[in-house]
C-alpha cells in the first residue's frame, strides 16, 4: 500500500489508517441507531407475527409476556440495535474495503466484487427462509405439542332441574370476528372474538380490555418476549452462517482444496451431514430439523454447481496492473 504522496505505507501508517476506518465505521452507525429507535417498535411487532399466528392457529391466545420491568424495554433496544447493525453493514464493509483494497491487485478485487453480493444474497435468503418457512411450522408444532402434552378431563353431566339449555344460550355473549363501532357502546359491553381467542370488554373512552382464552391443556403456552427475541436473533445468526455453505465450497475449490469430481461421489455423506446440522442448529423439533437439513442439502448442490461453472479464472480475468497471477 502507498500513501497519497506515492510512498510505501509503514506499519504505523497502516495502524493509523485502521484506527481511522474503525472510527468512521462507529460514527456511521450513530445515525442508524437513532433511526432504529424510531422503527424499533414496528419491527418488534413484525418479529412477533410468526409466534402470534402460530398460537392462534393452534387455538391459543396471541400475546407474549414480560416478566420483569425491563424485559420489554431491553427487547426494544435489541431490535433497534439490530436494525442499526444490519443497515450499517454495507458502510462497515465499505470502510473495510477502503482499508484492504490498496494492497490488492485488480484481479483480486474482482473476487471481492463477486463474493460480497453473493454473501448478502444468501444472508437475505436465510432470513426469508427462517421467517416465512421454518418459524411458522416449528412454532406451530411446539405450541400444539406443549398444549396437548397434559390435558384436563372435565366430565359432562346432565343439567340440574333449575338450569336449562335455553337459559345457557340466552345468556351467551355475542360472537363477533371484529370489534363493533365503539361510539355506540356503553361501558361494560362484552363480546367473544373466536379469531383471537379473546373476550373483549369496552370500558369507555375508546378503551378495550381483553381476557385471553387459552386451551384446556394443563401447561399454558405463554412465552416471554425477551426469550423469543433472543431466539430470533440466535437463529438468524446461525442461519446466516449456515447459508454461506455454497461460498465456502466455492472458495475451497478456488484454492484447489476441493474439486467437483472428488465431492460428487460423497453426496450421501453430505446429506447425512446436513441432517446432523439440522438437528444441532434448530430448536430440535422434527419439522425444523427436516426443513433445515433439506435447505442445507440444496445449498450443497448449489455449491457443486458453482464449483463447476464459476472457476477462479472466470472471476479473475486479466490483470490491469501488471499482476499475471489469477
Find the count of extended strands (DSSP E, 2+ residues): 5
Helix content: 55-70%
Mean pLDDT: 84
Given as residue ranges, the uncertain stretches (5+ residues, pLDDT < 50) are none
Give the CA-based shape: elongated
DSSP helix count?
A: 11
**Strand-residue proportion:** 5-15%
- Across the major sheet, the strand order is 2-3-4
Query: What class do helices, strands and sheet pairing give?
Result: mainly alpha
Distance between termini?
20 Å
The SSE string, one letter per element, is HHEHHHEEEEHHHHHH
Radius of gyration: 28 Å
Report the sheet with the most strands, covering strand number, pairing sense and barrel closure: 3 strands, antiparallel
Description:
With 326 residues, this protein is mainly alpha-helical. It is 61% helix and 6% strand. The chain is built from eleven helices and five strands. The chain has helices spanning 11-47, 49-57, 71-100, 106-147, 165-170, 225-242, 245-254, 260-263, 267-281, 286-309, 312-316; strands spanning 64-65, 190-193, 198-204, 207-212, 223-224. The strands form two sheets. Strands 2-3-4 form a three-stranded antiparallel β-sheet, with no helix packed on it. A hairpin with a 4-residue loop joins strand 2 and strand 3 (198-204). The radius of gyration is 28 Å and the shape is elongated. It starts with 10 loop residues before the first helix and ends in a 10-residue tail after the last helix. The mean pLDDT is 84.
Concise synopsis of the structure shown:
With 326 residues, the chain is mainly alpha-helical. It has helices at residues 11-47, 49-57, 71-100, 106-147, 165-170, 225-242, 245-254, 260-263, 267-281, 286-309, 312-316, and strands at residues 64-65, 190-193, 198-204, 207-212, 223-224.
